[in-house]
Specification:
Largest sheet: 6 strands, mixed
Number of domains: 2
Number of strands: 21
Bound molecules: iron/sulfur cluster
Strand order of the largest sheet: 3-2-4-5-6-7
Structural class: alpha/beta
Helix content: 25-40%
Length: 537
């Protein structure tokens, strides 16, 4: 039995018409990862339900039988470092890496997903078309617009698609720089009738997405995923998951969540509730009550994210009964001042109470998630984190306690987009590790070096395309990026420019022409609110 035959579909694909558009929809990683992405599932099923599209799937390890002459090749990109796999797949399909080198007979290469919506510029040279924002209406608009120019040449197709809201055609925008190593001077469309600004699309319905396929080959075996909320109303100032997808939207309990859950639980007993802040759904308690009914007694429940002050004993009990042993909550820091900087509305008492409730409800472990190098953070804030972890350990003895910790990475469209990575984060992570291990608290740092690379791609511009290609040749390591920067010295800005420098708020950002929900002036206001708590003030 092939991997594809083991899938249980929760939608009905239609038979493609004779003249349907041959489309390859790729995930630039292995099947098990791709099929666990709700975004990938939804886009694939949207295409599969259109009779004018003949979609086939491609992963890095397996594929369906591909068309000989695809007209469209799409990528769902949800992890920055998968760009290497995009290059590999393009080469396997004998498609030039650079959009400008493609001919009429090559497919249009399009992409979407969180990485490209946040900042597509480092990958802009490799895509013909980028879809910005929620797929709900955008995918159909894209295919409908493509149908209108299907017989035209590449030049005409791209110009036509550029006029559809949310569709970005990178090659139709020219970026100029102050000098090779300097900031961006301007980003302008190359022709007067190409829109100056591309607005990310926002879906405003109250039916959110749910899995369209369940398979034991998924990374979370047999999971059925339901999107409970989209975005997060908390607006922590570093948080892409909140700012990029605003406004906060909640799925209707009766029209969306319950029907979706009933449908999914007919084929599996593993349910994942997804969203940046699931427990903030206004009817979350009712949802838990619904899942407590006897017919769902065997359901294994996973929750993507829990807000600290929503960890009640009841929630912990429900999760414990549903085979969940541990919960993860993001606290960011043990320092009240740092939490004010990032707008995390949370006190140490609430964090301690969450652990107490988790234990009382029968959970075995709690994982906190924090960051080092948050703007304005000082060594004494790190000490505060250690003190807080000790207090939690004392208040909930026997509960397995872990602190996962990453480095602050600036993200586009957030109030901290102008701030660089603090190089001291590396030492601070080491310090936390030493001190917490001494106290018997499990500490799991994320690699500082990879955070640097994430920041590079997060704030990169088009000049990075040559760097990414070189890096790939040198191998998949942080050292490869450094080597590539050395080789390109004088031709592109250095690593510090992209990663560590604080940028002026007047500077033209790489995503200047790609608008998200909030304008820069609002982000500046939010930054100024954070700035009130910086040490110099
Ligand atoms: S609570 Fe979590 S998801 Fe919400 S804004 Fe803060 S970090 Fe982002």
């Amino acid at each position: 039995m092939t991997v594809f035959n083991q899938e249980r579909l929760l939608f009905t694909p239609v038979n493609p018409e004779n003249n349907a558009i041959p489309l390859i929809f790729a995930f630039p990683n292995q099947y098990t990862i791709g099929i666990t992405s709700l975004g990938y599932q939804i886009v694939w099923s949207t295409f599969a339900m259109r009779s004018d599209v003949n979609v086939t799937r491609l992963f890095t390890d397996i594929q369906e039988p591909l068309p000989r002459c695809p007209e469209l090749l799409g990528f769902s990109v949800s992890w920055e470092l998968d760009y290497i796999n995009i290059f590999n797949l393009l080469e396997t399909l004998a498609i030039p890496l650079h959009s400008k080198a493609r001919e009429d007979y090559h497919p249009l290469v399009f992409g979407g997903g969180s990485v490209l919506t946040a900042n597509p510029e480092p990958l802009a040279d490799f895509f013909d078309v980028i879809l910005l924002g929620d797929g709900e209406n955008l995918l159909d608009s894209f295919i409908d617009a493509y149908q209108e120019v299907r017989q035209a040449n590449r030049h005409t197709k791209l110009r036509h698609l550029a006029k559809v809201p949310g569709i970005y055609i990178p090659s139709l925008y020219e970026v100029t720089y102050e000098d090779n190593e300097g900031a961006i001077k301007s980003i302008e469309p190359i022709e007067p009738d190409i829109p100056k600004i591309v607005q990310k699309q926002t879906y405003r319905g109250n039916t959110l997405s749910a899995s369209t396929v369940v398979t034991e080959k998924a990374a979370w075996e047999n999971i059925y995923m339901v999107e409970v909320v989209r975005s997060c109303p908390e607006m922590c100032r570093f948080c892409l998951a909140s700012y990029l997808t605003l406004p906060f939207r909640t799925a209707s309990l009766t029209e969306s969540l319950i029907p979706a859950i009933d449908k999914g639980l007919k084929v599996t007993n593993r349910l994942g509730l997804l969203g940046a802040s699931v427990t903030q759904h206004p009817e979350f308690e009712t949802l838990l009550d619904y899942l407590s009914q006897p017919q769902y007694q065997d359901v294994r429940l996973s929750i993507a994210s829990v807000r600290t002050n929503t960890v009640t004993e009841k929630l912990a009990q429900t999760l414990a009964k549903r085979d969940t042993r541990s919960i993860t909550i993001a606290v960011e820091s043990g320092s009240e001042r740092v939490r004010k900087i990032v707008n995390k509305k949370l006190s140490n008492e609430e964090i301690i109470q969450a652990a107490v409730n988790a234990k009382a409800g029968g959970l075995k472990a709690i994982k906190f998630y924090g960051m080092a190098g948050i703007p304005g953070e000082e060594m004494e804030d790190i000490e505060q984190t250690i003190i807080m972890m000790e207090a939690v350990k004392k208040a909930a003895p026997g509960l397995r306690l872990t602190l996962g910790c990453s480095t602050f990475v600036p993200k586009s469209h957030t109030p901290f987009q102008w701030l660089g990575v603090n190089p001291q984060a590396k030492t601070r992570l080491k310090y936390l590790e030493k001190q917490l291990r001494k106290k018997g608290i499990d500490f799991r740092p994320e690699s500082y070096n990879w955070s640097v690379i994430q920041a590079l791609i997060s704030r990169g511009d088009r000049r990075l395309s040559s760097l990414l290609q070189l890096t790939r040749e040198y191998g998949d390591s942080v050292g490869s990026y450094k080597r590539a920067f050395k080789q390109l010295r004088g031709k592109i800005p250095n690593l510090d420019f992209y990663v560590h420098h604080n940028w002026s708020q007047e500077q033209i950002l790489p995503w200047h022409h790609l608008h998200s929900t909030l304008p820069n002036k609002t982000l500046i206001k939010h930054f100024q609110e954070a700035n009130r708590y910086f040490p110099q003030n």
